[in-house]
Protein backbone atom coordinates (compact mmCIF):
# COMPACT_ATOMS: atom_id res chain seq x y z
CA UNK A 1 0.00 0.00 0.00
CA UNK A 2 1.30 3.45 -0.81
CA UNK A 3 1.86 6.21 1.67
CA UNK A 4 -1.09 8.24 0.34
CA UNK A 5 -3.31 5.14 0.50
CA UNK A 6 -2.36 4.63 4.12
CA UNK A 7 -3.11 8.25 5.00
CA UNK A 8 -6.49 8.03 3.22
CA UNK A 9 -7.42 4.96 5.30
CA UNK A 10 -6.30 6.68 8.49
CA UNK A 11 -8.31 9.76 7.54
CA UNK A 12 -11.38 7.64 6.79
CA UNK A 13 -11.05 5.88 10.14
CA UNK A 14 -10.70 9.17 11.98
CA UNK A 15 -13.73 10.64 10.14
CA UNK A 16 -15.80 7.56 11.00
CA UNK A 17 -14.71 7.76 14.63
CA UNK A 18 -15.71 11.44 14.74
CA UNK A 19 -19.16 10.62 13.30
CA UNK A 20 -19.60 7.94 15.97
CA UNK A 21 -18.61 10.43 18.71
CA UNK A 22 -21.02 13.04 17.32
CA UNK A 23 -23.86 10.53 17.14
CA UNK A 24 -23.10 9.29 20.65
CA UNK A 25 -23.31 12.86 21.99
CA UNK A 26 -26.67 13.36 20.25
CA UNK A 27 -28.02 10.11 21.70
CA UNK A 28 -26.88 11.08 25.21
CA UNK A 29 -28.42 14.55 24.92
CA UNK A 30 -31.75 13.08 23.81
CA UNK A 31 -31.67 10.47 26.59
CA UNK A 32 -31.13 13.21 29.19
CA UNK A 33 -33.97 15.26 27.70
CA UNK A 34 -36.29 12.22 27.75
CA UNK A 35 -35.22 11.40 31.30
CA UNK A 36 -36.04 14.92 32.49
CA UNK A 37 -39.44 14.77 30.77
CA UNK A 38 -40.21 11.44 32.42
CA UNK A 39 -39.10 12.79 35.79
CA UNK A 40 -41.33 15.86 35.48
CA UNK A 41 -44.28 13.67 34.51
CA UNK A 42 -43.65 11.35 37.43
CA UNK A 43 -43.52 14.30 39.83
CA UNK A 44 -46.89 15.58 38.56
CA UNK A 45 -48.49 12.15 38.96
CA UNK A 46 -47.04 11.75 42.45
CA UNK A 47 -48.25 15.20 43.51
CA UNK A 48 -51.76 14.50 42.20
CA UNK A 49 -51.87 11.12 43.94
CA UNK A 50 -50.75 12.61 47.27
CA UNK A 51 -53.23 15.49 46.96
CA UNK A 52 -56.01 12.96 46.29
CA UNK A 53 -54.92 10.88 49.29
CA UNK A 54 -55.14 13.93 51.55
CA UNK A 55 -58.52 14.91 50.12
CA UNK A 56 -59.88 11.40 50.67
CA UNK A 57 -58.67 11.42 54.28
CA UNK A 58 -60.34 14.78 54.92
CA UNK A 59 -63.52 13.34 53.45
CA UNK A 60 -63.67 10.65 56.13
CA UNK A 61 -64.09 13.22 58.86
CA UNK A 62 -61.87 11.07 61.08
CA UNK A 63 -59.05 12.99 62.72
CA UNK A 64 -56.90 9.87 63.20
CA UNK A 65 -57.16 9.07 59.47
CA UNK A 66 -56.26 12.63 58.51
CA UNK A 67 -53.25 12.58 60.85
CA UNK A 68 -52.03 9.23 59.57
CA UNK A 69 -52.43 10.20 55.92
CA UNK A 70 -50.84 13.60 56.50
CA UNK A 71 -47.81 11.94 58.08
CA UNK A 72 -47.52 9.50 55.18
CA UNK A 73 -47.94 12.23 52.54
CA UNK A 74 -45.33 14.47 54.18
CA UNK A 75 -42.87 11.58 54.35
CA UNK A 76 -43.37 10.72 50.67
CA UNK A 77 -43.11 14.37 49.60
CA UNK A 78 -39.92 14.99 51.55
CA UNK A 79 -38.15 11.80 50.50
CA UNK A 80 -39.21 12.15 46.87
CA UNK A 81 -37.97 15.75 46.76
CA UNK A 82 -34.50 14.59 47.79
CA UNK A 83 -34.46 11.54 45.54
CA UNK A 84 -35.97 13.21 42.47
CA UNK A 85 -33.81 16.29 42.97
CA UNK A 86 -30.69 14.13 42.92
CA UNK A 87 -31.91 12.39 39.78
CA UNK A 88 -32.62 15.74 38.11
CA UNK A 89 -29.10 16.95 38.89
CA UNK A 90 -27.64 13.75 37.44
CA UNK A 91 -29.61 14.21 34.24
CA UNK A 92 -28.61 17.86 33.92
CA UNK A 93 -24.88 17.17 34.26
What does this protein structure show overall?
- This protein has 93 residues and is mostly helical.
- The chain has one domain (3-92).
- Helices cover 95% and strands 0% of the residues.
- It has two helices and no strands.
- The model has no long low-confidence stretch (mean pLDDT 90).
Radius of gyration: 26 Å
Helix tally equals 2
Give the overall silhouette: rod-shaped
Task: Work out the count of structural domains.
Answer: 1
Uncertain runs: none
The largest sheet, given as strand count, sense and whether it forms a barrel, is: none
Q: Provide the structure class.
A: mainly alpha
Element-by-element helix/strand order: HH
Could you give the distance between the termini? 46 Å
Which strand-content bin applies to the residues? under 5%
Number of strands: 0
Mean pLDDT score = 90
Helix content class: over 70%
SSE blueprint and pairings:
Layout: H1 3-60, H2 63-92
Brief summary:
The chain has 93 residues and is mostly helical. Helices cover 95% and strands 0% of the residues.
Key words describing this protein structure:
mainly alpha, 2 helices, 93 residues
